[in-house]
Amino acid sequence: MTAPHPTAPATDTDLVPDGHAVVPPWWRQAVVYQVYPRSFADADGDGLGDIAGIVSRADYLAELGVDAVWLSPFYPSALADGGYDVADYRDVDPRLGTLEDLDALVTALHTRGIKVVVDIVPNHTSDQHRWFQEALAAGRGSAARERYIFREGTGPDGSLPPTDWESTFGGPAWTRVADGQWYLHNFAAEQPDLNWDHREVRDDFLTTLRFWSDRGVDGFRIDVAHMLTKDLSEPLPSAAELKALPRDGNHPLHDRDDVHEVYAEWRTVLNSYDPPRAAVAEAWVDSARVPLYARPESLGQSFNFDLLLAEPDAAQFRRLVTDNLELASRSGSSSTWVLSNHDVVRHATRYGLPRGDGSRDPRERGADWLLRGGPEEELDRDLGLRLARAATLFVLGLPGSTYLYQGEELGLHEVADIPADRRQDPTFARTGGAHVGRDGCRVPLPWTAEGGSFGFGAGGAHLPQPAWFARHAADVQDGDPDSTLTLYRRALALRRTLQTAERLEWVGTGREDVVHYVRPHGWHVVTNTGTEPYRVAGDLERLLASVPGDGPDVPGGSTAWFRSRRSSAGL
Ligand code: NOJ
After folding, report:
1. pLDDT tens across 120-164, in order?
2. Number of structural domains, the chain?
3. Low-confidence spans in the chain with pLDDT less than 70
4. Are 12 and 20 contacting, i.e. CB atoms less than 8 angstroms apart?
5. Longest dimension (CA), the chain
């Protein structure tokens, strides 16, 4: 077994009232690695990744050097939305293992000094959940239907949906049940939205938080944290009216101020544990409203998706980092940095696509990429990976926590070539194939260059793996000094010795396409997103770079970390 990590330097100064520093919460400066369990490692050979598979790779995670693992849903699910349709929040999908297996995983990771974060999906259940089955059986007007959002239809015979709202995955947001009523689902039809005005719904999620906290889980990632509470008073607005309404805390469906009443209750439960359990919001809201979720009395931390939506462009990076550090300081939280996750086209691929002309909002351009998938013929694989490595070293040098997505450490690209009949993402079917969906970043990982399913398991893989996965296999990269896996390992090991909570200072470069910041202990990070090399000034020793090289030159499309030969502690 790999030895536990040395303790990260306690530099994040949370002060107790008498002015003494206390041990900083682990999540403030953590590297959190997202595991998508059904695609990580398959121990029983049924083609679906499982909990025992993750346990079997615990040493890999320790060697990679991550501080925490976030597990996407592993709960019983009909897999209408990759597990984000949860049939039972307090159990493990039998195809993935048992609660005892989950306990063994928590122990295996804790023994290696790695924290565990699990996913909570509170906006909707699966239609297979006991509550929804009860609601269907009990009929209109029943108490069981009150836990969800049922309405009568419109039109002379109620055969039209209550409104013209569209679901996030395309198609109508209402589905009709046998007795003629309609229920609301902001995502797939198999994901009915819960009624968060219902006390039993609120209490049940408190029970779920306690259930996993009692089992030793260290934190929670909250799915679509901004959508739980709704104002559905009649008359309901049309889709066009909804779109026109400001998102100022009073919008009927999005980012309502009253959702924080829910999280205040959650926080009380999370803080009743020692140490308090962490929570991070997945809240796709206006940047200015992100701090509401990151306040200590709410969830405590919130994903910042700005870099994920940005071009690999030094000027954009600098502006977004400056803005987000300011937002983080407003909430008292630390910032988070994300380049890839299970919902978006992998960043190596995004960066290999033709650049936008700059005339559109990068948020829209990002959304476009993620919905459309990478048009493979336009992809420059080498450039994409080169820029991805540069961007990763750029974010790993920043203050705050960084979320990594499984496979990015192998330099994986999106898998664009998945036949229609193998696609699983509901987006694909609900848009008639117009949006390919997110399967391309969820293809089971290649562990070995040889063997069926590239070492994922003894059987097949639930999504088809392309032949080029062999080049990216973990066993090929292990020990190769220039591989992406080695780069991540070295970066995370160095970061562990250098990271602090202190802010950064920008250093002028005189170039729009080169960004340079310095952190305490004379840690310099220089990113060149242009094509011409940049020579860094000062008495600096090179620590690590995203492309092979030496000396003060930072080639185009690369990041280098340096350390000032003169500095000991301060900037
Ligand atoms: C966000 C999750 O990240 C995504 O995968 C899921 O489809 C939706 N929420 C609905 O739960």
Report:
1. 999 999 999 999 999 999 999 999 999 999 999 999 999 999 999
2. 3
3. 1-22, 355-377, 567-571
4. no
5. 80
**Do residue 35 and residue 114 come from a single domain?**
yes
CA of 69 to the centre of ligand 1 (A): 18
Q: How far apart are the CA of 510 and the centre of ligand 1, in A?
A: 41
Among 38, 74, 75, 223, which is best to mutate for testing ligand 1, by the most ligand atoms less than 8 A from CB?
223
Q: Is 223 near ligand 1, meaning CB less than 6 Å away?
A: yes
pLDDT of residue 22: 61
Active-site option among 50, 282, 425, 439: 282
Q: What is the pLDDT of residues 65-85, one digit of tens each?
A: 999 999 999 999 999 999 999
Tell which one of 126, 343, 406, 425 to mutate to probe ligand 1, the residue whose CB is within 8 A of the most ligand atoms: 343
187 lines ligand 1 (CB under 6 A): yes
Whether the CB of 86 sits within 6 Å of ligand 1: no
Q: Closest residue (by CA) to atom 5 of ligand 1? A: 343
Give, in order, the Cα–Cα distances in Å from 416 to each of 46, 408, 433: 24, 16, 13
Q: Determine, yes or no, domain membership for 13.
A: no
Residues 222 and 284 in one domain: yes
Cα gap 76→111, rounded to integer Å: 27
The dihedral region occupied by 358, where left means phi > 0, alpha psi between -120 and 50, and beta the remainder, is: left
Torsions phi, psi of 21, nearest 5?
Answer: -70, 140
Q: Which is it for the CA torsion 356, 360, 365, 366, positive or negative?
A: positive
- The answer to the question of residue 97 being in a domain is yes
| In a shared domain, residues 434 and 362 | yes
Model confidence pLDDT, tens digit, residues 455-476: 999 999 999 999 999 999 999 9
Q: Whose CA is nearest to atom 10 of ligand 1?
A: 84
396 and 480 part of one domain: yes
Given the residues 223, 255, 311, 408, the one annotated as active site: 223
Answer yes or no: 179 catalytic: no
Question: Do residues 270 and 277 make contact, with C-beta atoms less than 8 angstroms apart?
Answer: yes
Q: Does residue 309 sit within a domain? A: yes
Domain boundaries, position 387 = 25-123+199-484
Ligand 1 atom closest to residue 124's alpha carbon, by position in its atom list: 11
Q: What distance in angstroms lies between residue 427's CA and the mean position of ligand 1's atoms?
A: 11
Q: Is 95 in the same domain as 158?
A: no
357 is catalytic: no
Same domain, 530 and 425: no
Could you tell me if 41 and 169 lie in one domain? Answer: no
What would the DSSP string read from start to end of 194-240?
A: B-TT-HHHHHHHHHHHHHHHHTT--EEEETTTTSS----PSSPPPHH
Strand partners, 220: 118, 279
| Residue 135 sits in the same domain as residue 257 | no
Please give the pLDDT value at position 24: 85
pTM of the model: 0.94
- Supply the CATH number for residue 548's domain: 2.60.40.1180
54 C-beta closer than 6 A to ligand 1? no
Answer whether 303 contacts ligand 1 (Cβ < 6 A): no
The pLDDT of residue 500 is 93
Evaluate whether residue 237 is within a structural domain. Answer: yes
Asked whether 317 lines ligand 1 (CB < 6 A), one says no
